[in-house]
Every structure is written in C-alpha cells, then in structure tokens.
Design brief:
Largest sheet: 7 strands, mixed
CATH class: Alpha Beta
CATH architecture: 3-Layer(aba) Sandwich
Distance between the termini: 32 Å
Radius of gyration: 16 Å
CATH topology: Rossmann fold
Structural class: alpha/beta
C-alpha cells in the first residue's frame, strides 16, 4: 500500500498559528474552486471520502492536513480564484496560503489541479507566479480529462507543457480523471517518489 493510500485526517488550520509542527516531507494540493481537487485527492488515496467537496465553490477557508504512511504529510489548500468570495475573505485566504508556501521548509512537492478543458486561466497563472520562489517540485494535473475526446486531450497536454516551458515555469504535466482513473497511477507513483526523497530541496535551487 502506498503512502497516499494510508492517508488520514490530521488537522484543519484557519490561520498560520494553527499549522501542525513540521515533520517529514510534505506535499501540497492547490487549484481553482470547483476544479475537482477533492475528487483527485480521493482517487489518489483510493478512498471515497477522504477529502470532501463543498457544494458551494469557494466555501472552504482552511488548509486541511493529512498524515501519510512513512511519516509524510499532505496539505489541501483552499480553492483559489472564486470571484464571488468577498474581498476581505480572499485577502484572508491569500495570507493563509502565502504563509504556508513561504514558511513550510518540509515542502517537497506542489500539485496544481487545472481543468483540462480550460487550463492556465488567469488565476492559475497568478498562482504559478506566486510559486516561483518556492523550492519544491511541481506537478500539474489536468483534471476532468474524461470530458475531452482523445485528440483534445492530447492538444491540451501539449499546449499546457509548451505554455509552462515558455513562461519558464518547470512542471510535470499529466492528464488526469478521477472518474476514469486516467493518470491516477502515474501521478501517485511520481508523488511517492518525491516523498521517498525525504529531504526537501534547498531554497534557491
């Protein structure tokens, strides 16, 4: 059984002060509201209800932490880019997420979910820009790939890889569907490899 398949809920943090102490390698999941992040987490963990999707996009206001097998951790960030959220609430989210990304020395991998039908939106690009100084591996999962025909999936994958390379935003990109299972095993194996590295990359590398 993989580390991800041994995931269990640890804590929710509404402020930086609520973060659990750093311990072991950590993965973080991020994505726009309603992009399928909770479904992706459940698929990677092989569980139905590890992560819960809110019926109201943009409602989640905490970072949820999970213990993984082998001493690793996983952090699930609130969805970003929800236009209907009040300005003050969006500012609170920015402070929470920024505090996590800049202060978590055990972070080894960042997973960003993007809708395969609409990858690299303005909000996605803004978030990726925010990540530039963060020393961690990147993985982009193009979610809901099952909703595209084969040619469209291939085009979305190629276009996203090309756009990231052009913007000097190195990241691995995988087509992903929690419904069909496409990309689940590939993504899980990649993340397990990052966790087994055990040593977070040095900042500035």
């Amino acid at each position: 059984m993989s580390s991800l398949q041994q995931a269990r809920f640890l804590a929710s943090a509404a402020t930086v002060r609520d973060f659990p102490p750093q311990a072991g390698p950590e993965l973080v999941f991020a994505g726009r509201s309603n992009v399928g992040k909770s479904s992706a987490l459940n698929a990677l963990a092989g569980r139905k209800r590890l992560a819960f999707a809110s019926k109201t996009p943009g409602r989640t206001q905490t970072i949820n932490f999970f213990e993984l097998g082998g001493g690793g951790r996983l952090a699930d960030l609130p969805g970003y880019g929800h236009a209907r959220a009040p300005k003050a609430l969006r500012a609170t989210w920015d402070k929470l997420i920024g505090g996590y990304l800049t202060g978590r020395g055990t972070l080894v991998g960042i997973v960003v979910l993007m809708d395969a039908r609409r990858p690299l939106t303005a909000q996605d690009r803004q978030f990726l820009e925010w990540l530039r100084p963060v020393a961690a591996e990147r993985l982009v999962l193009l979610s809901k790939a099952d909703k595209l025909a084969r040619a469209a999936r291939a085009n979305a994958l190629a276009a996203t890889r090309a756009a990231l390379a052009q913007a000097s935003m190195p990241a691995q990109v995988i087509l992903f569907s929690s419904k069909s299972g496409e990309g689940v095993a590939e993504a899980r194996a990649l993340l397990e490899g990052w966790l087994k590295n055990k040593k977070p990359p040095e900042k500035g590398n």
